[in-house]
Amino acid sequence: MNQDYIKADNWSIIEEGFDVESVKSSESLFSIGNGAMGQRANFEENYTGETFQGSYIAGIYYPDKTKVGWWKNGYPKYFAKVLNAPNWIGIDIEINGENLDLNACTEVKNFRRELNMKEGWYNRSFEATLKNGTEVAVNIRRFLSLDIDEAGVINYEITPLNKDTKIIYKPYIDAGVTNEDANWEEKFWEPLNVKKSGNEAFVTAQTFKTHFKVTTFMHNSIWTNGENINVSPSSIDSFSDKIQFSYGVIIAKGDKSSIQKIGGYTVSLNHENTLTAAEKTIQTALAKGYNQLLQDQIDAWAKIWEMSDITIEGDVKAQQGIRFNIFQLNQTYLGKDSRLNIGPKGFTGEKYGGSTYWDTEAYCIPFYMATKDQQVARNLLTYRYNQLDKAIENAQNNLGFKDGAALYPMVTMNGEECHNEWEITHEEIHRNGAIAFAIFNYYRYTGDYSYIPEKGLEVLIGIARFWHQRASFSKNKNQYMILGVTGPNEYENNINNNFYTNYIAKWCIDYTYEQIQKVSLEYPSDHKRIIEKVNLSETELQEWNKVAGNMYFPKSEEMGIYLQQDGFLDKDLVPVKDLDPAQRPINQKWSWDRVLRSPYIKQADVLQCFYFFEDHFSKEELERNFDFYESFTVHESSLSPCVHSIQAAKLDKMDMAYTFYLRTSRLDLDDYNKEVEEGCHITSMAGTWMSIVEGFGGMRVKNDTLHFSPKIPKEWQGYSFKINFRNQIVKISVNHNETQLTLEGDKELTVFVNEKPVLVEPNKLATT
Prior knowledge:
It is built from 19 helices and 33 strands. The chain is of the alpha+beta class. Strands 1, 9, 10, 11, 12, 14, 15, 16, 17 and 20 form a ten-stranded antiparallel sheet that branches. Strands 8-7-13-19-18 form a five-stranded antiparallel sheet, with no helix packed on it. Strands 21-28-29-30-33 form a five-stranded antiparallel sheet.
């Protein structure tokens, strides 16, 4: 049974009623971020119930020493932890001598949370009866400014309901935090300095080992009935890593008292003097004031939604799901800084570590290409280019490769591999292919070829060299094979000839060879520079082509399907529909040995190949492979349902496509995999966007031209989305009777709808 306590709403995530069992799940779902920092929806006041505290700063990490039972050559030395950052949101509350703690109150009623996605703020309200008999109404609004992305704002308002009340606000900032997933129970932060001035306080700390310096700051003001009463703290408790102010006020029954707290982080990634920068950030925020900061937030989100929104008519849960996904993607990454990337949990949790996986290239780049300026996607490609030397070191030092072969890490913060599961780190090498595919996809979509001669070709050559060296020749089959791998289906380890891995390896070599020839003809100076830099010879190119031209692909001629790996048909092929539901999810109910021997597939594998290289196969081939592999797929990866939804729509299996869409869009809201309390699945949320745009909308780019094959689930009345295609914004609206297209740009554009050309003129409606 999936969770169902989130109320259906077009623009908000809403929880009504206080349930201690859902606190940690809600902390994930109501998380907020602004691209530079983020935090789980932890309570500001003290809470003694179960909670998962988490605040995070983009780009800040700790190399936690690898912890394994026994060491294997090539293991990464550390696992990069997404750090739980110093706490700036804390406000202990004392009411008539008793601490406010929802876990200890006599009664909590009218509890309500709202994450307003349209305007970018999080609100929590409740009425509480304390053990001392005091009744209060509380309303808290919190947001992380998009305009001043080092600052967040809290307005914490209390109204006594049954008596005049003495309230003591105790705001604090605290660098004495730990990670829940620390390998060795170490502290990751070293306090350096504490400073206080009036209503402002600063704690400067740095990370051990990596020496990122962070100043955590706060400014507090106390208000009565909307008026700033200009009080100073009555007492101050200061420690090496924490500082806490106290403000005492007496409030009449029915009056409103509030504390407004401005807080956040300034970091050494961006500032030489983080303390001075923090002081300036406070002054900038104070000059605007709470109301203007909130209005700026609303305006900034309105601009984001103007381009990235997808509307769905007639299905509130579907609408809520896609907006939640789009909202979280924009909270996590806005494309301002090419040093940053999209972590799998974003700012919602610590699990997985690292800031980038192959998810970025395979799933996220299409979303950012279509909903932002193309420079944002180019920044994501540049991120990998900047880490090419580390990828070459990884292939050389961890796997013994040579001559500039590059294996990009499965998980990384700075280009070094930091994932310490052997079967993933050393075997799930298909991630190299996704990085090459992203370069191809970027050019296909944007038409911007300049990236390839400037940076991309060096990446492609390193990847092609890896595939050339990783393949081995089988005298038995007289073909090249790739042995000992894990494909996208992580429920099979150390298998031979994963179809997707072999196919993308061949494609990478072929595509790289083509780009070398193209750059040679069209960018001869770049070609000369690159070939000399990487020391690439014609003899080596011929060796590449020998491997690519004679790659082995496992196939069942009888069934007309490609085999996920050589031995797949030797398994006990019991379809998922015949599994006892009580055994699901199998990754939580079965031994790993049993999982590995089973035919069950975690996520699209052969079908991932059909997704990337759709034009290489016939629709009939897709259908045969889809029908076979979908029947064994348990979708216990967040990345799985979106690919299946796209392909089901292409195959006119619309009920199935819709079911998969709901699963991917509400994966976290409904907690399909029963793990949302650990954080949301941010990177897969881009797949949700694709399931509408590429699935139901049928968007493809063919021969530099946009194509659509619109379909609509019977549950919907209509849907619409926008895409930025080569600096022209196309809006497509689909209902059961027609498809409408409009264009924001300065020149007409021909697109294809169901293979028929449609001329779309600026600011004119085209209907098919």
